[in-house]
Structures are given as structure tokens and as C-alpha cells.
Automatic annotation (TrEMBL):
PROSITE patterns: ACYLPHOSPHATASE_3 (PS51160)
Family from the record: Belongs to the acylphosphatase family.
Domain Acylphosphatase-like: 1-39
Signal peptide stretch: none
Domain of life of the source: Bacteria
The organism of origin for this protein: Candidatus Roizmanbacteria bacterium CG17_big_fil_post_rev_8_21_14_2_50_39_7
Lineage: Bacteria, Candidatus Roizmaniibacteriota
Gene3D superfamilies: 3.30.70.100
UniProt xrefs under InterPro entries: Acylphosphatase-like_dom, Acylphosphatase-like_dom_sf
Protein name, UniProt field: Acylphosphatase
Coiled-coil spans in chain: none
Length: 39
């Protein structure tokens, strides 16, 4: 879930400091049928 990932981002890595996280939700502008990963 996106919310769980955002909470992890707020914590940050063990030796880091995260001062602020801003999150903006937006409505969908386009719908994609799929994607591919190229190497």
C-alpha cells in the first residue's frame, strides 16, 4: 500500500534525519495498459 511506503519514507534510513515529507494526491490523468523494464 502507498500509505505504508510513505510511513517508511518518513522514518528514513537508520543514520539519516527526515525533517519533512509532503504528499500530494492527484486524480488520474491517463490510464496505462502496462509497462516494461528495459536494461
Amino acid at each position: 500500500k502507498v500509505e505504508e511506503i510513505v510511513e517508511k519514507i518518513k522514518e528514513g534510513p537508520p543514520v539519516s534525519r527526515v525533517d519533512d515529507v509532503e504528499l500530494y494526491w492527484q486524480n488520474i490523468k491517463e490510464v496505462f495498459e502496462g509497462f516494461e523494464i528495459r536494461k
